[in-house]
Amino acid sequence: MLDAGTNYSNINAGRYNIEGGTVIFSGIANIDGGNKIDFHNIPGGQLVIGSTSLSDLSGDSLNVENFVYGDQIKIASSTSYSDDTLSTAVSGDDLLIQSTVDGKTTTVVTIKGYATSSAANVEPAPTVTYSDGYILFGEQSDTGACFLAGSMVRTPQGSVAVENIQAGTDIFVYDWKSNTETTQQVTWAGQAFTVVNSSLPDDEAGYPVRILKDALADGTPYKDMLVTAEHCLFFNGRFVPARMLVNGASIFYDKSITSYPYYHVETAEHAVTSVDGVLTESYLDTGNRRSFRQNSKVVQLHSKTRTWEEDAAAPLGVDVDFVKPLFDNFKNRARHVAGSQTPAAPGTLTTDPNLHLVTQTGAVIRPVRCANQHYSFMLPPGTRSVQIVSRASRPANVIGPFVDDRRQLGVAVADIQLVTARQHATPITAHLQPNKPAGWHNTGWAECAWTNGNATLPLDAQTEHNDIAMLSITLQATGSYPLAAEVQENVQRHSA
């Protein structure tokens, strides 16, 4: 019996346990068809199978047990598929993942015993899609902007729990331009399920945001409100994502909730609605509708994907000047809100980027000189590329969630010069090109580019003579970086 958390290759075992974790196989041929892959009815499990071809897949099968919604099977495929060519079909007790191209349907992979498993009764039924080189069966969804169960939607018949809203229900909507209230009919109500990925930052992990009663104003919301991080609230003519208002006291990520169903309510036109006494948004289909099960027996036909720029009921308000006053107001009133949490103490920050290089062999190169943002490094002969490595941080973490920048930023690199014994200084500009190497952010700036803390710098053409070389890097800017993880690492090292 082998458990999740390991990368397996050419191992025969009676059973593989995936209890909310991940098991990785190098290829589907490494799995004996007689073996059991058991998800243990726990959402969040993932089976990853790499390096497969169509011939590999069509000749093999997976014997899966206790697969539930929130679990996922991820199969690398050298053949590309569009989502509308992939489907599922039941054959006896087996589930077939199929592809239809030019009218011909081919079984891509067989999941043995699926029809007799608990997964066969799961609602919504798992989908099969193709993305970034993988066939994906089952949902590990991006929750987007959604409500949790118990959110009360204001309707002419009174407040109705979001999970009970169906297509055809009339709900109140607010026309902020004319300051009037009207009704719109719900055209679609969707439901899905998500499992938190605690390895990601809180705002990306899937934790719901809890907005305590009275957190926004007296009586607003009139009870605790639970929404996903990207769900928008309406203030002064703009929509603001809930994640940008998290203060850790009256508005916080509820980490006691690690898996949950979530719900969307769509109106004919994107609208400002009232839920739990808070002005918020109806669903805007920006491309993730197929991840949801419809809460209605009537099948609705849907229009093309919409955009915030063209179809939103109000513009997004994510600039600091607009959001920070709201954030400060809610943070200041938090001490008067019942049930407010004690925010975590801010971590220790440093402005030292700890800039260094790592060669393709793993050698660490420290600067031989550093002054006024100019760093010089001595490269050994034969260096074909280096990683520019530094501390990194997200502005939304070190400045505040009211900053809509969640990139990992290392250092902003401007000028790079390479000097060898055979030639004068040669400028290196790979980081300034439109198609940047791995680890560089596309900021649109012509004079510099930010790393993510570990950025590739190719040097092949400049070091072909195997000379010792000096690499000079000029930084345009650095950031503030958390020290907490490094301090903990040092404590563990010294206590070992």
TrEMBL record:
Which InterPro entries has this protein been placed in? Hedgehog/Intein_dom, Hint_dom_sf
The superkingdom listed in its UniProt entry is: Bacteria
Q: Where does the signal peptide begin and end?
A: none
Q: Which residues form the Hedgehog/Intein (Hint) domain?
A: 146-286
Provide the protein name. Outer membrane protein
